[in-house]
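Fold these two proteins, one after the other.
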Amino acid sequence: MLHQHDLGLYEKALNPALSWLDRLSTAKSLGFDFVEISIDESDERLARLDWSPAERAALHQAIRESGVPLRSMCLSAHRRFPFGSADPDIRARAYDIMDKAVDFALEFNIRVIQLAGYDVYYEDSTEESRQAFLEGLQWSCRLAEQKQLMLAMEIMDTPFLNSITKNLWYEQQLRSPWYAVYPDLGNLSAWGNDVERELEKGRGSIVAVHVKETLAVRPGFPGKFKCVPFGTGCVDFSACFRKLEELQYKGPYLIEMWYDPQQDNLHEITAARKFVEDQYRKALAALKEEGKKP
């Protein structure tokens, strides 16, 4: 926990060979409050949406035994099966994935489904793809409203939806209390946004925050959005935490990193957590020095 904030760990930070009980227990032993499950574009993780009763029971048992909940879901499967695809079969699959993801979330008491902000990923973006994407979000919001489940858009690693400002347009179109934003501090920073201003704009709808390091986009370099060691990139974490404290954000933080079999996995996670905690303490100290109570 960071002060008044729960701290979560992204599932992909851990060895994928672990059982769910071992995965959740490991997260607990490393000091995390919850785990974010991934439903990505791989066949293996997509298959979770169609698990048998026995497979679902095993995850329920792992949650009970470990005492570690799955509070959020990273639903990046729509990168492969986007709402905006020109292929009607792919669009139909996008709706099916959303429907099943909502049911999965409800069963496992997942509070937030993080959406991927791509109208399309492996196709060219067009006016038609953007309109189909919006229609998919409209349908998803109606479903979320029926089930009282929060959908939150991630600020992404492509220009299409790379700022909270851009997501505000979708919030205005959707007008749903069940649609919010899930900013990624790394992605926000890498695109050269005024990150503190962006966080101010999103304050009314930030339901969780990804904590990740990135390398900035610049002429001749597309940026790097994954597997950048903490402290070696472009993110001013202490400034981000300071701004969020000023805005009285009380939601969870989620450390996003990826398992590397060539590294000491548990050491890397422990080091990342310490770095984040140090940056958070630095932010609180700066506020205290200014006479602003955290």
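Now the second one:
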Amino acid sequence: MFWEKKLENWVDEVRNHATLPLRLELWNGQRFDFSSAVAPDVTVRVPNASSLAYLLTPSLSSLGEAYVEGKIEVEGKLKEIISVANGLASAYLKPEGKFGRVTRSIRHNKGKDAEAIRYHYDVSNQFYQLWLDQNMVYSCAYFENGDEDLFNAQIKKIDHILTKIQIKPGQNLLDIGCGWGALVIRAAQKFGAKCVGVTLSENQFSLARERVAQAGLADQIEIRLQDYREVTGTFDRITSVGMFEHVGLKNLSMYFSKINALLADDGVAMNHGITTTDIDNGESPYGGGQFIEKYVFPHGELPHIGFVLKSMQEGGLEVMDVENLRRHYAKTCGIWADNIEARSDDVRQASDDRHYRIWRLYLAGSAYGFERDWMSLFQVICRKSGRSAATLPWSRKYIYAAG
């Protein structure tokens, strides 16, 4: 049959380019091992001939789709599955081809952005509670010493941010994309700030308000279901953690201009977000970005850090401090992936098998991408441009003195 010869040629081509601990099992009992030197750690089972199309062009997008949609079954440890998938893609696909680090152009508006946020964050609060830390912080943790558990690393991350922006008692803080409220609660409790948190997720909005009330902080914290573009007023401090990935490349200057407009003359802001390491703002290679766009973050776009800094200046902001936390996010995503794996039955019950498969791949794949410098994570501190140099700190000592 035609597909048999095509499959054999494909297997031979992959074998010639890579040594993969992979076994392929077909519906008719046929099987192929992709290396004679190493035992197979991962087994891919193909239930029918129609599923072969996903393998013959093995981008991370097609392989991920085949797994999520039940076109193939995969057996093995999650980290090894991700490693083999990347090995297949890199052995067969050209990095400069259609599955390379391409840049997509996406039109953003309030309606589309709200829809994308709801798709990602409104799976269910229980779903996220099963694999995040107790405070449900869904962003890169800060492992100051490297041996912290996730709960303490997330608290350290929040304190790290609030110390960097030098928040003081009585100052008002705007948190753009406040999630389930962990940062504003900590800012009010420990630092005495008055806070406004905005989110487009109804699930986050409801639970964040509950948590604020339970903490007895309703007089210090207001949680709003609101687009950041609709916020008015003046704030001493502004934070945005894991949100600007949804803004869009063409909107970054506008986004930072809005922060500038909301920031007090002597205010300080911080943007904490994922960036691509491709200098042309290209997405993750081998189709990884396509998978994320389709299944995880619709309309998401990652800028290069150079583009971020340029856009900040275009928005009237001066960059004061830049810190790379790539290693921290590789570890964070790895812990999240392990948590999902350990509680797989509960995660399926809180959502469904399809969501479990999506997030299982996404988190483990993200850990792989951060580990290999496909993506990074930067915290950037900024203030309004044109202020006196005398108001800048002499060193970064203030960030660590309190610790």
